[in-house]
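User: I'm preparing a small set of examples for a lab meeting where we compare how different chains pack in three dimensions. I only have the primary sequence for this one, and I'd like the structure in token form so I can line it up with the others. Please keep the answer compact; I'll paste it straight into my notes.
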Amino acid sequence: MIEDHTWIGQGCFFHSAGGIRIGEAVGIGPMVKVISSQHRMDDPSKPVLFQDIEFKRVVIESGSDIGMGAIILPGIMIGEGAVVGAGAVVTREVPPYAVVAGNPAVIIKYRSR
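Assistant: Understood. Below is the structure token output for the 113-residue chain.
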């Protein structure tokens, strides 16, 4: 589900098997990747490719901005008004109004409310 007034840049990839919800007035830069499933890796006797797939919903709350080339992994929630820096790899939840950057993405500051 994508709510009103959301902008999605060119060349984005949304793998929605696990579900994706994008709130209102979200900006998503070009080449962003949102992934909502992944292979399990808990059985070392099997190649990862042959292990079960986990489906985990991604939520990007209203007013957020996702920078160019960012990657958002399965099960992540991006809080309201948060900013994800260009090229960031988001591996854990982003609190509301946080600004994250890097690989893996870390909080570098909070936006004033």
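A couple of notes for your slides: The CA atoms of residues 89 and 104 lie 5 Å apart. The two ends are 26 Å apart (CA to CA).

User: Perfect, thanks.
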